[in-house]
């Protein structure tokens, strides 16, 4: 395991400066996750394997966050005109992965999974199972990255101090740290 970029930083130590509602939302992301409501068990297995490949086995529970968004139809507020709505696009793309795997995508080796996902990524300008491959790739990565970077574990990794409300930020310039922030161990002095 590599040395942390912001050693000793824990964004949750800043929770005392957030309002009650913000704290409840952020802390809930670190606790037990609710049962899935959108994905079927087969889709869950495929989606977990896909997300593990996209973000190299992240320490953040991505699938529950994505599942909750899709169950609530909480999208980015837009979708590509040549794609189905996000919930349908997720279902179709997961079924397509299983179809290409000639069985459960999750049952493939990690090398095989990476190769299959890589083929989708490389199909720029082409369709994959009736959808533009580049837009399928965008769907997967948008949701994966949104889920990842909404979690305090990822915030610690990037040195993000958490919500600005109600405390705010004082030092808004380049190379300026708040008094409570930790220096980047990988930057030059």
What are the salient characteristics of this protein?
elongated, 189 residues, mainly alpha, 2% strand, single chain, 44% helix
What is the topological layout?
Elements: H1 20-28, H2 41-54, H3 62-71, H4 86-100, H5 110-122, E1 127-128, E2 131-132, H6 133-148, H7 152-158
Antiparallel strand pairs: 1-2
Hey, roughly how much beta strand do the residues contain? under 5%
Major sheet details: 2 strands, antiparallel
Strand segment tally: 2
The radius of gyration computed from the alpha-carbon positions, rounded to a whole number of angstroms, is 19 Å
Structural class: mainly alpha
Counting copies of identical and different chains, the oligomeric state is single chain
* Mean of residue pLDDT values: 94
- Integer tally of domains: 2
What proportion of the residues is helical, as a percent range?
Answer: 40-55%
Tally of contiguous helical segments: 7
Written overview of the protein:
This protein has 189 residues and is an all-alpha fold. The protein has two domains: 1-29 and 162-189, no CATH class; 31-150, no CATH class. The protein is built from seven helices and two strands. The protein has a two-stranded antiparallel ribbon. Strand 1 (127-128) and strand 2 form a beta hairpin. The protein starts with 19 loop residues before the first helix and ends in a 31-residue tail after the last helix.
Explain briefly what this protein structure is.
By secondary structure, the protein is an all-alpha fold. The protein contains seven helices and two strands; from the N terminus they run H-H-H-H-H-E-E-H-H.
């Amino acid at each position: 395991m590599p040395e942390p970029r912001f050693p000793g930083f824990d964004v949750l130590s800043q929770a005392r400066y957030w309002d009650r509602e913000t704290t409840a939302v952020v802390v809930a992301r670190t606790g037990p996750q609710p049962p899935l409501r959108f994905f079927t068990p087969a889709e869950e297995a495929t989606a977990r394997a896909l997300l593990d490949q996209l973000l190299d086995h992240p320490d953040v529970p991505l699938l529950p966050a994505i599942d909750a968004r899709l169950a609530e139809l909480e999208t980015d507020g837009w979708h590509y005109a040549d794609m189905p709505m996000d919930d349908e696009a997720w279902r179709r793309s997961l079924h397509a992965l299983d179809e290409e795997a000639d069985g459960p995508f999750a049952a493939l080796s990690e090398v095989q999974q990476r190769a299959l996902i890589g083929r989708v990524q490389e199909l720029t300008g082409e369709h994959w199972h009736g959808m533009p491959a580049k837009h399928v790739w965008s769907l997967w990565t948008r949701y994966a990255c949104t889920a990842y970077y909404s979690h305090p574990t990822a915030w610690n990794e990037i040195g993000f101090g958490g919500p600005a409300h109600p405390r705010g930020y004082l030092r808004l310039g380049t190379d300026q740290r708040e008094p409570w922030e930790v220096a980047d161990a990988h930057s030059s002095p």
